[in-house]
Amino acid sequence: MSSIATVPSRVNGKQQDKNVFNGLRAPHLLAEWPIIGILMFMFGGLVFGALAYNLYAHGPLLKWDAALANTLPAIGLKSPAYVKYIMLAGFYVGKDVLNGIDVILGLYFLYKRYWRELTLVTVGWGGAALIFHFLSTFIARPRPVTQIWIIVNIPGFPSGHAVFTVVCYGLMAYLLVPKMPSLLWKTVVIAAAALIIAFVGFSRIFTGGHYLTDILAGYAVGIAWFGLAYTLIEMYFQERRIRNVKKE
Asked: How confident is residue 132, by pLDDT bands cut at 50, 70 and 90?
């Protein structure tokens, strides 16, 4: 008898195996409830629009940007050495580790011939990269002059780290949560993804790599793109599966 228990659940009227080691598949949630993706797209788009307007209109949030950009890096320079390494970890968790996860997932889905999941990874990541580069280049907001430890010179609004962490770690949670055997473990996965996303954003503000509104705008873009891209991909593959079943 196997020592790894499986917990069945009912999705689309069929029994589904929730053993996390039995294949990492998309749960069809966004295809079944596209309103979730629509609301994510609308919310993210509205928040980004409000933050962009605040930037161009020199709104009140710019005071918070300046205050944090002057205060947090100064605290960092006076902090013990371990604080430096913790905050630098945020940079790499939001870039190099994230890139590694993306490559591993892509190769895994390609090997397993999970075309829907491969499309989620490639379109989600590639689209996020294009959107980030277009928006940051078009808006062209300079980064804080108080950067410490890691200096980045490309425009900073929205934050690429914030965009990509939402798209990548959000997708990981979307894939893993349905595989978890209990509500406790589902909560742990969601909390872990949220904490990683928040930690990366805070670390970029703490080291002066971004203003607060850069990070918030990046989160907003990530949420909007997550809702739009992943919902459309899930709906497309579900519709194709339904057509194939009808032909049989």
From this structure: very high
Q: Are 116 and 237 in contact (CB under 8 A)?
A: yes
Instruction: Please state, in angstroms and rounded to a whole number, the distance separating the CA atoms of residues 166 and 156.
Output: 17
Q: What string of DSSP letters covers 39-64?
A: HHHHHHHHHHHHHHHHHHTT-THHHH
Q: What is the pTM of this model?
A: 0.87
pLDDT in tens, 6-48: 334 444 434 444 455 457 888 889 999 999 999 999 999 999 9
| 87 sits in which H/E element | helix 81-93
**Domains delineated in the chain:** 30-241 (1.20.144)
Q: Which residues pair with 11 in a beta bridge?
A: 14
Q: Which of 80, 83, 203, 89 is nearest to 147 (CA)?
A: 203
- The closest alpha carbon to 221, from 185, 195, 197, 242, belongs to 197
Q: Are 136 and 155 in contact (CB under 8 A)?
A: yes
pLDDT per residue as tens digits for the range 74-100: 999 999 999 999 999 999 998 889 999
Backbone angles phi, psi at 60, to 5 degrees: -65, -25
